[in-house]
Amino acid sequence: MPRTIECFYPGDGFPAISVTGNQCSLDCKHCSKKYLEGMVPATRPEELLQVAEALAERGAKGFLLSGGSDGDGRVRIADFAPAIAEIKAGTDLLVNAHVGLSRREDLEKLVNAGVDAFSTDLYGDEDTIREVLGLRATPEDYLQVLRDLRSLGAPRVAPHVCVGIHGGKLGGELRALEMLRSLRPDALILISLIPTKGTFYADVSPPDKDTIVSVVAKARKLLPDTRLLLGCMRSKMDRSPEVDIVEAGVDGIVLPASTTVEKLRLRGYNIKKKATCCAMI
């Protein structure tokens, strides 16, 4: 039976919103606040309500709510919980929250506010957390966020593992996959380092095809019942590996090249297109 591959095209219908504007207390080597510059700023609850109203009026599907971290690695989205509840009550917008190392009490506020999905980070190596993010946190700290969300009844939890985040080399990704085995998440989103101008890692090489394929294959073996997705945050300098990555076991891919979609069709895959964020499975 031919496999179905979901292709996600979030675009303007599912923008990213930053609750901190372009501000962040960290200076991560892969980001250096650069990715905040491309987000819609909404630093006060009333601004978020205004942005959401405009999105609803133009027929958007929803939005990613993220932002910069504080010094402890938390994205302070819980401060916007009442506004999120108002948005959920008054619109059909879907909300995907990227929460960082948020505490249980803050996660509970967001779950109760009606957040539809939670995007979380997971690292399997303490050196990577310290050297890349500049945080004195542990892999267990990140795993605890997943555990808290599950015990609080979050409707969708999508852990993200970034392949090659430690300067383009593997640094705990396989251990992160092992850590997920006991949780058996509904979805796992794999992303990869993007060497970005203005960051410490601007001139490093992104992880090569073989590295990414090996991580996908390992994830497929360890998590046979988990929806495995190739997320939007990945290097797109070379799109040719996308078909091999799909064949290694992913169930969906965000913003695939048109040539990738055509090749997959020729190989017998069913293609299902969605105009939304891949965390909204």
Concise summary:
With 281 residues, the chain is an alpha/beta fold. It has helices spanning 45-57, 81-90, 104-113, 126-133, 139-151, 173-180, 209-222, 242-247, 258-266, and strands spanning 4-8, 16-18, 40-41, 62-66, 94-98, 117-121, 157-163, 187-192, 227-230, 252-254, 270-274.
Keywords:
281 residues; eleven-stranded parallel beta sheet; globular
Describe the protein's architecture and organization.
It is a single chain. With 281 residues, this protein is of the alpha/beta class. It has one domain (4-274): TIM Barrel (Alpha-Beta Barrel), CATH 3.20.20.70. The chain is 32% helix and 18% strand. The chain has helices at 45-57, 81-90, 104-113, 126-133, 139-151, 173-180, 209-222, 242-247, 258-266; strands spanning 4-8, 16-18, 40-41, 62-66, 94-98, 117-121, 157-163, 187-192, 227-230, 252-254, 270-274. Strands 3-2-4-5-6-7-8-9-10-1-11 form an eleven-stranded parallel β-sheet, covered by helices on one side. Helix 1 packs parallel to helix 2, helix 2 (81-90) packs parallel to helix 3 (104-113) and helix 6 (173-180) packs parallel to helix 7. It is globular, with a radius of gyration of 18 Å.
